[in-house]
Amino acid sequence: MIEIRLAAAADIPSVALLVAFSFHPGNGWQALWRSFVQLGIEHDLRDRWRSASPHYRCWLAITTTPQPLCVGSVELDLRPINGHPQPYLSNLAVHPDYRRQGIGRKLLSTVTASLAASPYSSLYLHVLAKNNAARQLYRRCGFVVIGEDTTVWGERKLLLSQPLTGDRYCPNAAQENLAF
After folding, report:
1. Separation CA 23–CA 120 (nearest Å)
2. What angle do CA 98, 100, 102 make, to 5 degrees?
3. Which of 45, 66, 127, 130 holds its CA 20 to 30 A away from the CA of 54?
């Protein structure tokens, strides 16, 4: 069974490990590189946590059996989109052993449910163009491509948007409605 809950400061190392492993899998030199990436992610998470932004949230997907384990995470904050602060989803990560079990969809639903009473009309995110699995999940959850850019490494990334009003395509919305 999977439980979705808000992260606490004590969860930062687990989230950093999950995000590093999800976005940088591999063995050998890649595993060594992942250790450095993980340290950077943990530092960034601590900075976001310390910023005390009233809009920042991080949710976790935790297994409840056989022992609690962080198997998914997602972050939400405001970022400028077309010059205006908008809800922006980042670092949606699911442990490779737990993918294709609806955890990403549950995390997305939790984010959109938290924005139900907000004054915002859309949720935004970036995804690498080559990440077909993530693009498929986002498309099924009602996101559409509205722009394109490149990362600092020259990889194509897409800007996606999902309307926060009307029917949504991402089932299993969370019951919790947090003010954003």
Report:
1. 29
2. 90
3. 127
